[in-house]
UniProtKB/TrEMBL annotation:
Keyword Transmembrane helix: yes
Name assigned to this protein: EamA family transporter
Annotated ranges, domain EamA: 3-130, 145-285
Family: Belongs to the EamA transporter family.
Keywords (A to Z) from UniProt: Membrane, Transmembrane, Transmembrane helix
UniProt keyword annotation of Transmembrane present: yes
Species per Swiss-Prot/TrEMBL record: Streptomyces noboritoensis
Transmembrane annotation, as ranges: 28-49, 61-79, 114-132, 144-163, 169-193, 205-227, 233-256, 268-286
InterPro entries reported for this sequence: EamA_dom, EmrE-like
Amino acid sequence: MTALFALATSLLWGLADFGGGLLTRRTPALTVVVVSQTIAVAVLGAVVLATGGWHEAGPQLWFAVAAGAVGPVAMLSFYKALALGPMGVVSPLGSLGVAVPVGVGLVLGERPGLLQFAGIAVAVVGILMAGGPEFRGAPVQRQAIALTLLAAFGFGAVMALIAESSTTVTGLFLALFVQRVTNVAVGGTALYVSVKRGGAALPEGGRAVVVAALPALAFVGLADVAANGTYAIAAQAGPVTVAAVLASLYPVITALAARGVLKERLRGVQAVGAGVALVGTLLLATG
C-alpha cells in the first residue's frame, strides 16, 4: 500500500508541477498559488463538512499549520524557477527535498533493509539524471537553480510535517484543509504586499485571462492537495524513507509531460535516468 499511494503522489505532483509551471509563464506566480489554493480550500471545506472531519481537531493540526506556512514559499520559488528554466532541469532538482523526510525517518529509528537502501540510492540518482541538469549558461539559469533548491527544502519540510498531522482519513481531510487555509493566508498576504510595492497581481489581459485559466488553476490546486493526502497515507502505512523516495519520482512525470505537450526533447541522460529511477522503484517496492 505504501508503494501504491507514494507512486500516486508522484503522478499527481508531477502533473500539478507541469500545470503550475505553464500557468506561471503567463500569470504572476503568487496569483497562481493563491487562486489555485483558494479553490482547494473551498473543495476541502465541503469535504470536511460532509465527513465530520471537524471532530478530529487536536494538537496535531499544528503540523498542518506549519506545513501551510512553508508551502507557499516553496511553491512560489518552484513556480518561478519553472518559468525561468526548462522544466526537465528544474523539476529533478526540486526532488532533492526528499532528503528532509528521509532524514526524519532515520532519526525516528526507521532502518530500511539493504535492498531498500540500494533502491533509495538508485532512485535518487535516476531522478537527478531524468532531468539532465545543465549547470552552464546564463545567470537566469543560476537563479532558477537557487530558487529550486529553496523550494526543495520547503517541499521536504511539508512532506515531513503533513505526515505527522493526522492519524485517520477524516482527520487527514481536516489537516489538509487547515494546511490550505494557511497557504492562502500566507500567500494572500505576500500578494497584497507585492501589489502595494508595485507588483502585478494580474497577467496581461487582466481578469479575463485568470477566469479563462480557472479550470487549469483548479486542477493544479486539487492535484497538489490530493498528492499531499496520498503521501500522508503512504507515510503512515509504511516507512517514511520508502514513501518519500517513491513520492519524489514526480520529476519523471513532469519531464514526460513537457515532452508530450511542449515537445521538449528528452536528452539521452534523461531517458536513462527515467529507467534508473524505475529500477530504484522496483528495488524499494520489493525490498
